[in-house]
Amino acid sequence: MEPAPAPRCDRLLVHYAEIGTKGGNRRMFEEVLCRNLAGALRDSVTGGFGRESGRLTARLAPGADPGAAAARAAMIPGVAWCAPARTVRSDLEVIREAVLAAALSHGDGAFRIDARRTDKSFPLDSPAINATLGATVVSATGRPVSLRAAVHTYGVEVDRQRSYVFTERLEGPGGLPVGCEGELVALVSGGLDSPVAAWRMMVRGCRIHLVHFLNRSVSTNRVVEKIEALAARLSLYHGPLPLTFVPFDEAQREIVMVVPAEIRMIVYRRMMFRIAELIRAEHRAMGFVTGDSVGQVASQTLENLAVIRAAAEWPVYSPLCGLSKSEITEMARGIGTYEISILPHEDCCSFLVARHPETKADRGAVEALERFDAPALAARVFAGRESRTVDPRPPIS
């Protein structure tokens, strides 16, 4: 059978999962998610997003690409799934016509109907709607029904005011919308792990301020471009994203003069937390995010992490701490940071460190070797920072 033109979608449906468990606070979470979606889709929808019967909806703007709008919405933390949909009257015959039109646009292949009735006054319950609509499609097209191996699924949501018919459902990241929790300062290196860690905390509702430490004596412009590209990719999930570059070369020179190579990485990272603390205080953030994964590299043994984090005055969150490199890599691919992270760049943390660094550092011994004025050095480095806000845009290729 030759497929007919697909019916035009006029509405975007957004569903959440975890937000639905929030009881009396649920409305606040819904409102934050509505704002975030409206900001991300300001050119694709008109009138913003509204709340109705456990879902959010928005009217698609004239000329908007429904599939592209849904794909954008599917990136926003808090979204469980979304779909471009066609709005119809909540009448069985009208719904039947809309589902059949969608089925005729697909030609051959097994199908299933997935109906949800939120209006309990509608004469048929969800299983009966499934059976009725399925029989209509089988009769008109001869296509088989398959609940497990369907090529196409026709979704139907029946509400009192209106009903929705859709065929393309996109999974979102779930979690909570950015802005439900406080702000965190995320230390990003340019590798695979730290951008994924920042993203994981976004999905827990946290606002993020990215910080990158830069050794200007060994770095080139491509390092800055790479970090900005990572920030641009992450901003697609977060919204406009603060990014601060910190010149770290002065601190490294002072550390190299007094600290043995075996523990320089540990002291570097302790100094980074002291500087990041000044950024945290400036923005009233509530802690730090790192991409640490226990045992992945020498500085991430439990002993070394304890010594490093002793320099942080606020909590350090490491959402990847129990994951393997392959699991982190898979997440990086999924959120679109992998191809950027593997671009070559100069890593400031490798500046004059030992080939075989210390793996079981002692806090007292490390502190005894820090024979420099750490607060004064942190303040001088902090003064040279450069900050900007990165707006959502496609990353560099």
Oligomerization status of the protein chains? single chain
For the largest beta-sheet, the strand count, sense and barrel status come to: 8 strands, mixed
- Report the principal-axis shape: elongated
CA distance, first residue to last residue: 41 Å
Q: What is the count of helical runs?
A: 13
Poorly predicted segments: none
Q: Which superfamily, in CATH terms, is the homologous superfamily of the largest domain? A: HUPs
What is the number of independent domains?
Answer: 2
CATH level-two architecture of the largest domain: 3-Layer(aba) Sandwich
Helix content: 25-40%
Please write the CATH class name of the largest domain. Alpha Beta
| Rg calculated over all Cα atoms | 26 Å
Mean pLDDT: 92
CATH topology of the largest domain: Rossmann fold
- The percentage of residues in β strands lies in 15-25%
Tally of DSSP β-strands: 14
Structural class: alpha/beta
Could you give the order of the helices and strands?
EHEEHEHEHEEEEHEHEHHEHEHHHHE
